[in-house]
Sequence to fold (395 residues):
Amino acid sequence: MAGTNKPRLKPELESLQVYGDTLVGWDENAPPNETVDADGNVNHRGGVTDPDSPNRRVYDDPTVEALRSHLKEHNGIRSLEICEPHEIKRAAKIFHRDGFVVVRDLLNTEQLTHWRKGCARVLREILSISDQGSRKYVPETGRLPHRYSYGTSSASRHMLHDLAWASMIDLPTTTPIVTEIFGSSNYRVWGSGGDLCLPGAIEYQHLHSDGRDAQRLTKSRIEQAKLVGVELNTDSSGELDVPTQKLIMEMTPPMVTINFLMCDLTGENGPIRQIPGTHTLQQPPPGPADEPEWMKHSTLVGALAGAGVFRDNRAWHGATPNLSREIRALPNVEYAAPWRPSRDFTKSMPHGIWETLTPYAQKLCDWIKEDPGVWPTGAGLMHPLASKQVEATKA
Fold:
């Protein structure tokens, strides 16, 4: 019978789920701040490692317990604003002000269950790849231990070959908010993926933004700015004045990503942190050694499973220590601005998946779907090491 020769999964992987207590994680043999290169060789990254991480990746280590106690007391944005799905204009207003907004109840019970199963299935595949050393899991290239990305673990760099992700593109709770943020329905789906951290991810991930904004004042970007209410003021020479130019850039993000919560975010299970207002900044974020405590605690504690965070990808954000026994997964869908040209997009969605979508989702994905009979390069090939992804696409 097909499949009988496959090695049996470890019990902790067979029972893996992305909410509630799990046996996955807490690998004592994964040293703090250790990262690997494309081939899996240890490759410490100076300047972006966490200088204050606990000493050992052990649940009851004294340094872990001290940090856990500290996070339980201090973690979370005080008075975090959380919108209802019907508060479309309010959500968009907060998004443009802060660079992110949390909206509850984006997923119903059936959708949440479907995506949880998909996230667990794919993570099980990633973690079942055996390591030649003493570590329980193969770490992902360039990431701190116990941290993975669904997107960058895929050889296609996206997850739109999987219905668990593709079916969440056009939801009645999300589409109106994305449309309001862009001021237009002419945006497109860029891709999907999302990050996760296993229990025992003891380090802070460095603050970063997801890509730089080239800040080109194109005609199509100006038109989008007008749609979201930007008043075009000119200077004495008849050109757009500097404040108007800056406001155009501020109000027209190149990308909007929705990360969906598979579990409640608590003070100790690795909640994402977002630094309000940083989507407008050109300066880089501080490194781990210089990051103030308030930024470390600027997390979305209190957001519940089924909610989502709409993110301006330019805003500073980062993952935080997961000192719990629960996997924290944030799968996502990524939307590109109406002014992004079609040449920027990569075909990552199989035509058969595209045919299952709503008519509106099909329109959103028309630049990333492959032709009938053509499978997107790398789609479905999952491996945490970049070199193995390359090998798989050439096989």
The longest strand covers residues 188-197. Residues 11-27+45-207+254-374 form a domain with the Jelly Rolls fold (CATH 2.60.120.620). The beta strands are 82-83, 100-103, 147-149, 188-197, 255-260, 273-274, 308-312, 317-318, 328-336. Residues 365 and 395 are 28 Å apart (CA to CA).
